[in-house]
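> tool_call: predict_assembly(chains=two)
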Amino acid sequence: MLHIRCPYCREMRSEEEFSNAGEAHIRRPPDPAALSDAEWGDYLHFRKNPRGPHREVWVHTAGCRRYFNVLRDTVSYEILDVYPAGVPDPDAPEETTP
Amino acid sequence: MEKYSLLSLFRHAGRHHENWSRAWRDPAPREAYDTVIVGGGGHGLATAYYLAKEHGVTDVAVIEKGYLGGGNTGRNTTIVRSNYLRDEAARLYDFSLKLWEGLSRELNFNVMFSPRGVMNLGHTLQEMRDIERRVNANRLNGIDGEVLTTAQAQKRVPLLNCSPNSRYPVLGASWQPRGGIARHDAVAWGFARAADAYGIDLLQQTEVTGIRCDDGTVTGVETSRGFIGARKVACVTAGNSGVLAGMAGLRLPIESRPLQALVSEPLKPCLDTVVMSNAVHCYISQADKGDLVVGAGVDGYNGYGQRGSFHVIEHTLAAVCDLFPAFSRVRMNRQWGGIVDICPDACPVIGKTPVEGLYFNCGWGTGGFKATPGSGYVFADTLANERPHPLVEPFALDRFASGALIDEHGAAGVAH
């Protein structure tokens, strides 16, 4: 059972209040029509799925209903970081930050 | 290979069962093989067996980081069925079911396949319409299926709560008589023993730590016991497929999640079929030794810890108690999780990758056990002939670029 601290409610709550919404920091391509089928398929379906630290989106479904990001280890399930939606990907190279 | 028979049993009984030969060898790895199969679960071992039997390829090693059948092969709820909606999936799973029917004789190993029927309950009008659609689709594909009324379902499963006053009343069910259960360990052991008899090396306690490629062509695998060269590398590693793909610089459309199951203390025979319910999410059967085998849901997030969220168990057991009030005081004995590899369309990915000589057979998600022999057969054919077997052509990796997904998610008999 995970205990997640919602960055908006500032409370530690059980995972049953939350829903996972998959990998975080997936950016929608600015011009989808310019992509090849393979690039578009990669955006839609291919995920990092790491064994180890994973940045993912969660929703506080039974609370404030807002989205936020969590850095969680997928082996130990330890939650390493929680931060609000909209914060740029800390792992991303500098130049891709808008 | 020593043939198992009534005669051999009598002969060994006379010698106090002290001289049974080992079921398979424990060889040291050779420097190189024609084909290296990564993953010694049911699918990997079946692939090795059919490579040798159907295609005469015996220069093969199966590399397993733990022990044979210790992953999802030993962690599922052993249900075998083929009542899938989509043509592509239905053909593949029914091909597998037909192999199950003769498997014990073929392997000379009792896999205890028991076609006791699989019942999928419907609890809403829409579910009953879906069931009718699926059963009709099954019959058009030559797969047995019937739609049962509530009274017929009750007659087959007397303990089932069919009261119209229950929270989710049973309005009917689909019924596949050829479905059933099998003994999961025996499937791994049977394939392992039969593959070993062809001279295939089964390397346990050997972990693959890297895939070596040269100019876009695979040359072998780095392992905890040194480098092993190979012309072809076939990864059949379920939840860890993404990790293996990463070693070759590839990405897969797969997310790994824990799926739980649990068994009860042994009971006297009380449930002689498999009962599944999408709406309340539970599936339950009774093993031959009396334990109730209960399948729970998949976790809502990625994970590689082989356990699973506790509240998922509560949800599943609430559903079991609702459907079978008589089981409410049964004590559960053990609980575990397996890491399932889920594709966006809940269908497997089988075949070549952009790396020459590297093949993947993964993405079976929550329903791989039933496909064990069929998956091994078609994957061996794909490996030996270096082109997709006709049954797996629709399951190629490029469907995620073309968009030709096989939308079996939620369309199969039970929620994926």
